[in-house]
Amino acid sequence: MKKYAIRLHNNNCDASLIFHAAPNSEEQPFCKFQWYITEDKNLVGKPIEDEQYESYITETQRIKEEAYEKLYLYCKFINVKTNTENKTEFIQLFSDVNKIIDAGTVFDDISKFNEKGDIVTL
Asked: How far apart are CA 104 and CA 11, in angstroms?
């Protein structure tokens, strides 16, 4: 899974988050995706309604609003051509991006929005 965080301008806790299931480029056109939320990594998660795409995009504020605090996010994708099923890693969600990082999530890139709304590398 590829993971990106874009911190809000003048705010170290809030961020936009992009999680990309990222099967290989040859396999991707044949995959069906579904994102899930669960309280426990050992339990089957509840499907997140209308989240059937390769990427899941959210914000720390939305995590709080949806009551996803401390829950785990993952994606299951099935290659319909080969009928193979795969699952991404589990990401523990928090309404503070620093807590997501502290919980062990390694982001591929962490950027921020500048005062003009442009994304800049840290």
From this structure: 21
Question: Could you tell me which of 42, 20, 41 has the C-alpha nearest to residue 31?
Answer: 20
- 2-121, CATH topology level: Immunoglobulin-like (2.60.40)
- Rounded CA gap, 111 and 18, in Å? 12
Contact between residue 33 and residue 77 where contact means Cβ atoms under 8 Å apart = yes
| Residues in a beta bridge with 72 | 38, 92
- pTM for the full predicted model: 0.90
Residue ranges of the chain whose pLDDT lies below 70: 26-27
CA dist., res. 96 & res. 52, Å (int): 25
The 10s digit of each residue's pLDDT in 66-91 is 999 999 999 999 988 889 999 999 99
Query: Would you kindly state where each structural domain of the chain is located, as residue ranges?
Result: 2-121
What's the order of all strands across the beta sheet hosting 2-7?
55-59, 15-20, 2-7, 109-113, 119-121
